Amino acid sequence: RAVARLHGLSEAGVVYSQQNPAVIDQGVFHNDVIAVGNGEVLFYHQDAFLNTEPMLDELRDKLSRVGGQLRAICVPRAEVSVQDAVRSYLFNSQLLSRSDGSMLLIVPQECQANASVWAYLQRLIADDSPVAEVKVFDLKQSMQNGGGPACLRLRVALNDTELAAVNPGVIMTAPLYETLTQWVDRHYRDRMSESDLADPRLLDECRAALDELTQILKLGAVYPFQLN
Predict the structure, then answer these.
(1) Angle 11-12-18 (CA atoms, 0-180°, nearest 5)?
(2) Which of 211, 222, 214 is nearest to 170 (CA)?
(3) Which residue ranges in the chain fall short of pLDDT 50?
(4) 189-193 — which CB contacts under 8 Å span 24+ positions?
(5) Degrees (nearest 5) of the Cα angle 83, 17, 90?
(6) Helix (H) or strand (E) holding 75
(7) Dihedral (Cα; 104, 151, 156, 45), 10-degree rounding
(8) 45-101 pLDDT, tens digit each
(9) Is the dihedral of CA 205, 209, 210, 214 positive or negative?
(10) What is the reported pLDDT for 123?
């Protein structure tokens, strides 16, 4: 409630729901490991929430008041266990809208490797659901650090005027991607030991890398060490 208040959200457009403590104990450390939403669609595991039906009723009611219609997709525990959902990061996916009104689900390769998860996804796109397509990506490096597709993308909804006001230096392009790749190759160590953390040279390296990054992205001086 404090977060909603500090963000200036209207109570008419907010639903407070508690995550199921039982799934937290099974490794669901964030809600995005057990549910994901996009637009009017909520894609969630059967065991994701406490008091699921009252929550869905409230969502339907509040959406309907602004002309929306909730489309809830519940993944049954009989088809995908919580453990398989956590292992595969099924819900840490990207649920994206397409121009034809359908949705695309981007999942990590681990979903395809998990028999029960993959069988469910095949049935999902075959059924009459908002999700029309599933795309699989190899995200092993990110997954090994606890990040699935949802962790690799931040959705920011902007109109044309707002987009025009964004610093163009932070908009990903093919040349910027190449420049950032070269920056990583120059500055990232390929190994780290405990003793390195006490090495002043590591601090100098980090500052040099950040200083160059802010120049690449045309951010100006944003870190305290750049302002001194």
Answers:
(1) 60
(2) 214
(3) none
(4) none
(5) 30
(6) strand 71-75
(7) 50
(8) 999 999 999 999 999 999 999 999 999 999 999 999 999 999 999 999 999 999 999
(9) positive
(10) 97
